[in-house]
Structure formats: structure tokens, C-alpha cells
Amino acid sequence: MNILEIKNVTKKFGGLTAVGNVDFNVEKDSIYGLIGPNGAGKTTIFNLITGIYQVTEGEILFEKQRITKLQPYQIADIGITRTFQNIRLFKKLSTYENILTACHYNSKYTILDAIIRNRKFKVGERKLHSQVNELLEIMGLADRKDVIAGNLPYGLQRRLEIARALALRPKLLLLDEPAAGMNPEETIKLMELIKENRDRFNLTVLVIEHHMDLIMGICDKIAVLNFGRKLAEGNAQEIQTNPVVIEAYLGEEEVTLA
């Protein structure tokens, strides 16, 4: 079953076509990769899925429902969350507070409950703090919970951003270059973490990444973009051996080493 369907989607900015007639389907519970050179249109597709940009032509379906006219907050409400290429944490809040802020989306109490601090509020707060602690443990951040987010090492800031996205309990998680700035060891750990979280939270993951070892190691299916158009689609082996992809993006030497 496809959870996400991109159908002949085009996005134009004036006379510039950033994404041209792109189509692909993402199966439920899969990890799907988007790769391509800088400027290929990958992040633009994320912005179209999440409602930041409006589609010029075509349509996007999530669980068979058209979402191309929805606002970003409505898309988050139906179960799509994302991380960003440039980390967007609350840099002056602690690691714990960053995740707690996102967990409040799941709170069941009202403002009045919070003012009078009744039983509903207290039970709700205990549940939220339990969720935060669980995510801290899962993401390997428990020992840094009191550290100000802006003071975390870059790799841990990336983990924190993923934890905050997971706090919204998404069905579809969009990761925009989650391994950017990480060393090879950190990238391998992140690769395992993404797979574990997919299974733990019954997630579908759509990931943009330039680290070929990560993409080839975790993705069930991969689409290659170039100049805003889909160049190829298939599993890791098919992409690595596709001569069009080799010429346009991977390079023969990199494929040989993969």
C-alpha cells in the first residue's frame, strides 16, 4: 500500500522550473531515498509535500487523500513531519525542553486545566514527561538532557531535531540530509537509528541525503533527481548500476567503491 503518491508534480518559480513532472510512490513502512546533485529539486519536493510551497501542476496524495491545498499545520495534523537541511532547534532551550515543546502537541488538557492545575493537567504532564524521557533514551541523548541545545555537538543536534519530529507521532517522517556534517562513524550509527525507529514507531521514512553509504544501506527504494526531473528509480543495486545515474551523479569511481 502506498502511503504517499507524488503524481506528475511540477513547481515553477516564475520562468524557472524547480521540479518538472516528477512522480513516485512511497510504500507504507518503507524507507525511500531521494538523491541528486545540489539544486536537483529534492528539498523543493519536501516543501511541496509539507505545504510550504504550493504545487504548480500535479497532485500529492497522502493515504489516498489529496493534500496539495493544505497548510503546513494541517499537514502536520494528518501525520507528516520533517527535519530541515539547516538545523532549526530552539538553540537557547535545553535538550529536554526542545523535545517537551514538541510533545505538548499531544497534550489533552486545556489552558484552564493548566491554570487551575487540576488532576487532568497533572496526569497529562506526567505522560508528556514520560514521552520526553523515552525519546531521550531512544536517541541517545539522556545524558545531555540539561545541555543547552546550541551547545550540543553538531551530530547530537541532528539527533535532537529527529527526536523533536518523532515527538509529534508522525506516520511519515521526512529527513532532509540528516547525516550532514557527520563523520563516518556517526553516519553508521544514524543509519541504524533510522532503521530502529522505523520499526519501533511503525514509520514510513522519506530521506534526502548525499551520504551514499547511508542511502544505499537503509533505503528500500531510491529515486534520483537531476535538474528537477526524475532520472531513475529502483533499489540500491539498480541505482548503482544504472549508466544514466553513473554519468549524471554518482560517478564511476564511487559506484565501483560502493
From TrEMBL:
Entry's Gene Ontology molecular function annotations: ATP binding; ATP hydrolysis activity; L-isoleucine transmembrane transporter activity; L-phenylalanine transmembrane transporter activity; L-valine transmembrane transporter activity
Start and end residues of each ABC transporter domain: 4-252
InterPro entries, per database record: AAA+_ATPase (IPR003593), ABC_AA/LPS_Transport (IPR051120), ABC_transporter-like_ATP-bd (IPR003439), BCA_ABC_TP_C (IPR032823), P-loop_NTPase (IPR027417)
Keywords in alphabetical order: ATP-binding, Nucleotide-binding, Transport
GO terms, biological process: D-alanine transmembrane transport; L-alanine transport; L-isoleucine import across plasma membrane; L-valine import across plasma membrane
Stored PANTHER family: AMINO ACID ABC TRANSPORTER ATP-BINDING PROTEIN, CONSERVED COMPONENT OF ABC TRANSPORTER FOR NATURAL AMINO ACIDS-RELATED
Protein name listed in UniProt: Amino acid/amide ABC transporter ATP-binding protein 1, HAAT family (TC 3.A.1.4.-)
